[in-house]
Amino acid sequence: MSTFELVNPADATVFETVEHLGIEQVDDAIARAAAAQKRWAGFSPAERADVLRAFASAVDADRENLAQLETRNSGHPVSQSRWEAGHVRDVLTYYSAAPERMLGVQIPVAGGIDVTFHEPLGVVGIITPWNFPMTIASWGFAPALAAGNAVVLKPAEWTPLTSLRLAELGLSAGLPEGLFQVLPGTGPVVGDRFVTNETVRKIVFTGSTAVGKQIMAGCSRQVKRVTLELGGKSANIVFADADLEAAALAAPGAVFENAGQDCCARSRILVERTVYDRFLELLEPAVRGYRVGDPAQESTEMGPLVSAAHLAKVEGYLPGASDATLAFRGTAPDGPGFWFAPTVLTPDRTDRAVTDEIFGPVVSVLPFDDEADAIALANATSYGLSGSLWTNDLGRAIRVSRAVEAGNLSVNSNSSVRYSTPFGGFKQSGLGRELGPDAPLAFTETKNVFLAIPDAS
Ligand code: NAD
Hints:
Belongs to the aldehyde dehydrogenase family. GO terms for molecular function: oxidoreductase activity, acting on the aldehyde or oxo group of donors, NAD or NADP as acceptor. This is Aldehyde dehydrogenase. There is one protein chain. The protein is an alpha/beta fold. The protein has 14 helices and 18 strands. It has helices at residues 23-42, 45-61, 63-74, 78-96, 133-146, 161-173, 187-196, 209-220, 244-256, 276-288, 308-315, 352-355, 371-378, 394-403, and strands spanning 2-8, 13-20, 106-107, 112-120, 123-127, 150-154, 180-182, 200-206, 225-229, 235-238, 268-272, 326-329, 343-345, 362-368, 386-390, 408-411, 430-431, 444-452. Strands 12-13-14-11-10-15-16 form a seven-stranded mixed sheet, sandwiched between helices. Strands 7-6-5-8-9-17 form a six-stranded mixed sheet, sandwiched between helices. 50% of the residues are buried. The structure holds nicotinamide-adenine-dinucleotide.
């Protein structure tokens, strides 16, 4: 066990400490989770649904507290934190319907009856990043619990507080003791133990592509199931026929929300060459007007970056440190805290600002020549998570949506996440899908049972 200090990103002060667990404590927790899962399996489907609805109500009642915790721990603007807490409630409510809908099928066969069951896996290990701590946690634990599993969850080192609170709320709502445990600690100790402990039957990992590859390799040793939600470098494609004003007005939010620390951030804006200059003219006031400041203020649109270490990484992409060309910047507060002003670059296609996932409020704007060039440029990345396209041509909207290699696309919108629709990445942005109606099935094994029926004679 060791102690870890939590820092408020808005003023760089230490405001709390948490105990990091060691391997033995993790193993004990996993054993408790396995025992709790047996008790959970003894609940009827309707009883499991009732407890998940009670969990959703407990989150609803605690929304303001969760939001304040997230704002202090992660620096999210409080209006965003409130949305996130409400989203966790909605995810739980949505999946509370699942226990009574885990439908198998009856398959016509000779000599008897054949039916399938969706059996829970047992204990599921969830490893989360620091950028959206509570929402990403809920995308894993809500469908996993609904499908009949126990969950052990390791939050990111910097941002454990809302996940710890959610575990308390689940227990108070009636989840069996040990069924949903949040285990703070480091990736190489607690996260890695989820991978190596054989009682954990599946890993849901959200984080960087580099660590995701290590997790996948580790899981292969036990043929452990794995879902990966990894990095992104998503394109926001603006065609000349689009409503340019609407596209430019929406573009800052699509990349600067959560200070760009968003796997779906549209960090490459691709603009048809004939309207490129006009688009930049429209973008500039929208970027300069983006409200960056105290995350506790209701009107703030963007807060600080999560940590000093992350700020230093993002600063490495400013011109001077790279050969990118600075177009214009917004503003950010001076003084303590991890502040970085929204930044617009106009680099070459091969610049590392265009190819790396910066995970900060930095966007590159690039011109393209025609539809084929736009698609090629959008796909010129090993990532494939999200993207947007802006056009008033319906045929083009469908053609380009089908051609862009990404899991979540929006037309004339930058919205990627709805709890009722599937979410996940192509290529090196991930493996598997979260959310949507099928998510609980990813936490089950299909079992086929044949019942022989003897002939009447
Ligand atoms: P990270 O990979 O550094 O860490 C993610 C989690 O993995 C943390 O909890 C960390 O402690 C843990 N971890 C680190 N090393 C480990 C190991 N060896 N074994 C087991 N666990 C380990 O990522 P981050 O910096 O916290 O998050 C940012 C990244 O997450 C970005 O790349 C972003 O795109 C990605 N992300 C993806 C999605 C998505 O849904 N696709 C969502 C949010 C964030």
